[in-house]
Sequence to fold (559 residues):
Amino acid sequence: MSSVSRSSLRRDLSDAFALAVPFFRGASAWVAVPLAAAVIGCQLGLVAVAVRTNLWRNDFFQALQDRDWDRFVLQFWVYSAIGVALIGLTVAQQYLTQWLLIRWRSFLTERLLGNWLREGARPRSGMDGATDNPDQRVAEDTRLFATHVIGLTTGLVGSLASLASFAVILWGLSASVPLIAFGARYEVPGYLLWAAILYAAVGTWLTHAIGRHLIPLNFWQERREADFRYALVHARDHREPIALARGEAAERRILSERFAELVRNWYRLIARSALLGIFTGTYRHYALFFPYLVMSPLYFAGGMAFGALMQAGSAFNEVRNALSYFVTVYPRIAELAAATERLGGFERASVGMRTAALPRRAEGHARLQSKDLEVFDERGQVLARLESVSVGPGERILIVGPSGSGKTSLVRAWAGIAPRWRGEIRSSASNMLILSERPYLPLGSLRSVLSYPGATAAVPESALDKALEAVGLERLRSALDSLEWRDTLSTGERQRLAFARALIVQPDLLILDEATTGLDELAEGQMYGAMANGLNECSIISLMTSARLSSLHDRVLHL
Fold:
C-alpha cells in the first residue's frame, strides 16, 4: 500500500471515529447504546440459529438416507421451530436497525448543520472546495454513512461469531474426516478449516486488487450527481430570467455538459463494478461446490455418511462466508469510504470556519461607531475605507458612494462577517437588521418569512396586516399561510416585503445596503416614511450610489 493510500486510510478511519463516537458518548448515548446492543444481540441470535440449523442438517439428511420416517417427521418440527426463531430475530433486527438509523442520522444532521450554520461563522480562504454541495453531504452522505456503518458493523460481528462457532464444528469434523488425495489417506488436523481459510484469503486479496478503484470513483460520482442536481435547481429557480434572456438553449447546454461529466464517470464506475462482479460472482458460485469437491474422494470411498457430508459442507460455507465478509461487502465499503471522506471534509471545513469578529459592545450613546475602518479581501487588498461614522438613537445617516466603492464591504465589517478588517467598531445595538439589494426570503409560508428569524407564533395577525399595508402589499394578506406566493413577486415587491419584515422585527439599528434599487422615488419615500412611523427610535444607515434621498436623512457622508 502506497504512503498516499495509507494516509487516506488513516484519515478516513479518523473521520469515521469522529463522526461515530459522539453519538454513543453524548446525550444520545442512553438511546444509542441500548439500540446498538439490541441490534448486535439479534445478530448473535441469528448466528446461534445458523449453528442449530447446521446440526439439523446432519440429522435431517441422515434420516433421509436411513429412510427413518419418525426421525424425518421430528426434524420437520425442529425445522419449524428454527424458522420461528429465525423470522422473529430477523424482523426484530430490521425494526431496531431502522430505529437506530433514524436516531443516528438525526444526530449527524443536527451536528453538521450546527457547525455549518452556527451564528457568526464564515468560511476561511480556500475552504470552498471542501464544502461543495453541502445539501448532498448533509442529506445523502449522512444516510449512507449511518446505514453502512450499522450494516457493516453488524455484519462483521455476525461474521466473527460465525467464524468462531463454525470453525469449532469444522475442526471437529476434520478430525473424523481424513483427507484422501491421489489414492493416499492423510490425517491432517483441521484440514477442512485450513481449506476454507485459504479459499477466502485468495478471494479477499483479489477482491481488493480489483475493487480498490471503486472508492475514488464513488466519491466523484456523488459529486457529479450533486453538481447536476444543483444546476437543475438553479435553472428552476431562475426560469424567468432565463426566458427573458432567451437563454434556454444555453441552459440546456450547461445541463447537458454537467450530465455528460456524470455519465463519463458513471461508465468508469460501471466497468470497474462489472469486473468486480464477475470475480465475486465466480467466487461465490464455486464456493458452494468447493467443500464437496474436497470431501468427495472420502465420500465415494464409503468413509463418510451423507448427513456428515451435508453438515460439513454447510459448516465449510459458513466459515468461508465469515472469512469472505470483506469480499461480499466491498462495494458497500467503497460507498462508505467515499461518504466518510465527504462528511469528514465537510465537518473539518465547517469547524474551521472563522467565528465572526463581532463589533465590541459600546457603553455610550451611539448605536454604531466605527473609526479608521479599512476592509480587506483574503489577499490583503483594500476593499473599503471609512474614517469615522457614529449614529445615535433615531438618527438617519446616508452614505453615498459609486458602485465598487466598498459599501457592501463596510456592511459586512459592521455585521462581523468581513474576511479581514482593521480599525475600531463599537455598537450598543441589541437588534441589528440588514436589508440588502437582493433580500433573502427563506423557505416557508409568507407568515414565516415576515417573522424570520423569530418564531411565527410570536407575531400577532394584526401586526402582519399592518406591516403589509404600510409597505403597499395589502394584496398579500390572504396569502399569509400560502407557499405559492414567492414566484408572484417582482424585485421591488421583494424589497417592500423586506421592509415589512423590518417593521415586525423592530430593530434598534437598521442598515439599508441599496435596499430600494427596485423601487421608484415615490415608493422609496413610502418605505422611508413607513420606517419613520413604525421604527421611532431605530437608527438607520442607508448606503446608496446617489444622494437623491438626502432630504430623508439627517447627515450625508461620501466615500
Summary: Residues 248-300 form the longest helix (53 residues).
